[in-house]
Amino acid sequence: MQDDATLVRHCLRGEAPAIRLLVERYQAEVYGLCFRILSHRHDAEDVTQEVFLRVFRSLARWDESRPLKPWVMGIAVNRCRTHLAQRTRRPELVDYLQDTLAGPADDDSAELLHEIQAALAELRPEYRAVFVLFHEQGQPYEDIAQALGRPVGTVKTWLHRARLELLEFLRRRGMVAEEDEAPACPSPPT
């Protein structure tokens, strides 16, 4: 398996097998991130294609002393942000089939998963991106910070706020009871 720097050099020479390998190496993670941020399969597919077009246009500017994956994921987050900004300026088509064809939930976990998806869709794009990168893709804070071009402290703050907003959303929807919350800090002894 080629390291990223060697793979990029081959891509810059226009070698088709290297280009294919780079796409295969990162496609699933880029698509997964785009899908989680955009919440629509077709939008995620379109943006994933845009990401790889942007990656190949910008590949000569990649700093080979830094890991490639956070750089690629940063491009994905930025393309998702752009897509979301454009989406808010144009009327959005409602995906009726997806909602109406889903069968009844067999248990509470399916309903909870649906509610979490809805909660994620309500988050600010940067909170959603950090949440998905950390919890679903298992990225460390440092890689997320690099991908987003933000300090690690900002990433931690955004992740904390995302968790709080998700919890509040789930409470409002009746999925999490108020008693389930741990106290913010221990009570002083009396």
Layout of secondary structure:
Elements: H1 4-12, H2 16-38, H3 41-58, H4 68-89, H5 96-101, H6 108-122, H7 125-136, H8 141-148, H9 152-172
Weakly predicted, low-confidence segments: 90-106, 180-190
Residue share in helix: over 70%
Strand content: under 5%
The H/E string reads: HHHHHHHHH
* Secondary-structure class: mainly alpha
Taking the alpha carbons of the first and last residues, their distance comes to: 63 Å
Number of helices: 9
Give the overall form. elongated
Describe the main β-sheet briefly: none
Estimated radius of gyration: 19 Å
Outline the structure in words:
Residues 90-106 and 180-190 have low confidence and may be disordered. α2 (16-38) packs across α3, α3 (41-58) packs across α4 (68-89) and α6 (108-122) packs across α9. With 190 residues, the protein is mostly helical. The chain contains nine helices and no strands. The longest helix has 23 residues, at 16-38.
Give descriptors for this structure.
190 residues, mainly alpha, disordered C terminus
Write a brief structural summary.
The chain has 190 residues and is mainly alpha-helical.
